[in-house]
Amino acid sequence: MAGAVAEVIEDVPSALLIEAATGVGKTYAYLVPALLSERRVLISTGTKTLQDQLFAKDLPMVCEALGRRPRIALLKGRSNYLCHYRLEAAAGDAIGRGRQLATIESLRRLARTSATGDLTQAGILAEDAPLWPQVTSTVDNCLGGECPRFNDCFVVRARRRAQDAEVIVVNHHLLLADMALKDEGFGDLLPEVDAVIVDEAHQLPEIAGAFFGLAVGTRAVRELGRDVLREMERDAPEMVDLRDRVAALQAAVAALLHCSEAWPARASWAEVGDAPGVLPALSGLDLALAEMEDALTGAADRSPGLDQARGRCTTLRGRLRGWLEESPETVPWVERFKQSLMLHRTPLDAARPLAERRAARPASWIFTSATLAVGEDFSHAARRLGLPDDVRAERLDSPFDFSRQACLALPEHPLPNPNTPGYTRACIDWAWPLLSGNPGGGFFLFTSHRALREAAALLRDRLPPERPLLVQGEQPRAELLARFRDSGDAWLLGAHSFWEGVDIRGDTLSIVIIDRLPFAAPNDPVLQARAASIEAGGGSPFMEFQLPQAVLALKQGVGRLIRDANDAGILALCDPRLTQKPYGRQFLRSLPRFHETRDPVHALEFLHNARQGRGDAVCV
Ligand code: SF4
Description:
The chain is an alpha/beta fold. The protein has 4 domains: about 160 residues, P-loop containing nucleotide triphosphate hydrolases (Rossmann fold, 3-Layer(aba) Sandwich); about 70 residues, no CATH class; about 130 residues, Four Helix Bundle (Hemerythrin (Met), subunit A) (Up-down Bundle); about 210 residues, P-loop containing nucleotide triphosphate hydrolases (Rossmann fold), CATH 3.40.50.300. Helices cover about 50% and strands about 15% of the residues.
């Protein structure tokens, strides 16, 4: 892998797709040639956690080993950095609220002492804390050059470090913000580079959909209203008409939320757009934003905050109008939360904008992940990433000995159809020897929250009370994982977010049970529109999109099991379609070569023997 990466870095412009299974040492295999090349390199990771790990651990280690001292910068999206200006405004709001004031004091201390102002690393606030957006900035509410704290602004400083660095570590959201030319403020986001390495590249197309699309939400409108009131009370208290405009804006938001109360969590606009009162509510919101914009135009010279609010108002109105416009290349859909609504327009296909933006930035592009190929075939990943069919692609198998370390258990007699009501109970009955007989811990992974909840209720009745049962949704993800690691014999029931990004070794995670093949929910509005578009072009949405997507998702889930050469484990796949449907073979062929059994008890014996490190581990 290092050789292939080195060749591609030397050959500008070029592209490489490289699948590296767990254990290959993917990170080192791209860091070493990148650092030896002495070129300017941008590395993009899937998550902020991986970004931090790369910056704080992997990069320093490889630099040390190679004796290199390049200038390295870590750059995150602006919402990760404390904003001095908004922190002080929030401090003013918090007077009299004891607990929040204590948190604000901790944040002020951080603002004084931290070199980076990185809130994610500080551990003071949870990422979903209501205070988070109040003490960080968005491009809409940042005062930019008008800000009295511009010179010591953490966002500005981080951008400057990145502009000056030879190796820049970002995440996909930031890379895409840059590619989509989304204005993040302060001019160019990322510097020109010779090579871009996209790790966890399988995540890029989905995230790209959001960046090349358009979204506008009621939460941003409400925040605008709140900020206008605060700025008015401080700098223009006599402009009472602003108070009326804020009230009108909040009423328009409330009317829209009221008529969307019964909508599902995600729905296509075609499905809900003609509900009674929706179009008048949207017109009402547009009008309220227009009147607010007018009122703020008259107040803009009273303070930078009011001037900036006018800009935000214009942007929000522009987005709302853009969303309302017909556009055949995009899918309009809505996302309903408890107290807010998001209106989205997602491109039918992000491949074209990805290809165009890559062409506009001539560099070596390296896309790597543990899951890019379906069998030996990279065409699905290449198509979604906007790469040509003949792009150079390589696959590196895991160096682990799966036939000795891991056992695949499939039901002897196929379980009922996964869409029938008794399916989850049947999965538990079949997997019961594994659930009850393993002295270590395991993951039970689901494709739907409904099945997860049903399994949790059934297992609470059946597992002995001393056996820890951790259920996604009952605690934050990080807490669940910490408890899982500590307990050593827990069962963790998880949906999508536990299928990837978890690295737990040894007996603690020695069984992975998967209830269904991870096909995307057929009622997802974006998936439905993409399927219709493929069909209209004469293709098969199932073979061209849904199946390869599900194969890659299954590979991610399976990848949780064997994490190093000493690991041993059982993979149990309950879904009868694996053996009953012709396409089941595509899934099985894409997995490493496990020992196979149809009997969970034999699988446990295999695991026991593998744990003893005996060479005669056998699966019957
Ligand atoms: S420049 Fe923007 S992000 Fe920086 S402190 Fe000022 S308002 Fe906050």
